[in-house]
């Protein structure tokens, strides 16, 4: 029996346990998962949904203590790992205990960046954990002026959640446009206008010089001297991989813990997955790569002869905010240009309706796309992006539902990227008796990751039901 020790009980570590359980019918793996948080594993990606009151603990809970116990696995919570002894193949826990391993998996995640000058008064939070979420929600219940520092994906989702709780919200962003990694200037302008229409102000090219207050935060001083009143501040300025344990025991670390296509570190007995891992120079920090890494590593651990290797995942980003449809993939931030040497960029803009759509093409293949205000063709666009197929002779067919020239999404097109669920898998679940999203999710896991595919899956279920009635 092989003793696999997983350091980290977050989304990557919990998914690895689930994938091992699915594959290890013979019981060859003796599994222990150690987590520093006191809570059982949960869906961190949906914490903004929990903050806004659109889901509950039951909606974000993953494999819990009972699930581990039923399978004979050990789950130790509230127990940080202090050190790794590679020579003795054991780890030292914060309570002084030690645990041995045959195979060690680092799933230590990432930690939020805190750029504000300290010391900081009460009422200033980062947003990474369940405890952060509870603390922010408790403060938001009595807050009148909330400031979110950071206009990336998480910051904008957080701002929308705080506004839903009744606070007046301002987003302070250091870059010249929102979501600068994903949006070009035209799309960012429209998104800022949409947020303004929802009562959320945006300050661009702005950084925080000081945080003022006594026992609690009262205002922020910006670098240009202006002040913003604030009795709640949420900092969302990105994350950095947690690599301290790996570096301290001598593993190769760059931005993240460096791994090869087998997800092995520089020590062949130690693997790394999820936000802490760096593969081929990329520390992705996204859910779908983390879960794909967990799946592949589980396959390798339960079947050492398996040929599967991790080569990376082409990620698609969605903004989870009610009333705002935004999908970005690949080189979505590429600015339209008349430069013949650059990529071909196809753009449709309707500022009055808040719609902005863009395709970025190289050699007649899709290398980036952006759909804001109307994501009805996201499934077909993602299919071309994933496969690298040649686009239709009129690429605009990919931007508008019903436009001639674009083939419908294939049965093996992915509808839930977090879990790799295809249209065909959803169709099989429906044929087997699933009639709604809850039943299809139970059968396929779709919608249990970031949750942004749920509307697409519901539309597909309805489409399959209509087709079934017509065929009958």
From TrEMBL:
The keyword Flavoprotein applies. It comes from Thermomonospora cellulosilytica. One of its GO terms (molecular function) is oxidoreductase activity. Its EC number is 1.7.99.4. It holds the Pfam family Pyr_redox_2. It comes from the Bacteria. Residues 316-377 form the NADH-rubredoxin oxidoreductase C-terminal domain. This is Assimilatory nitrate reductase electron transfer subunit.
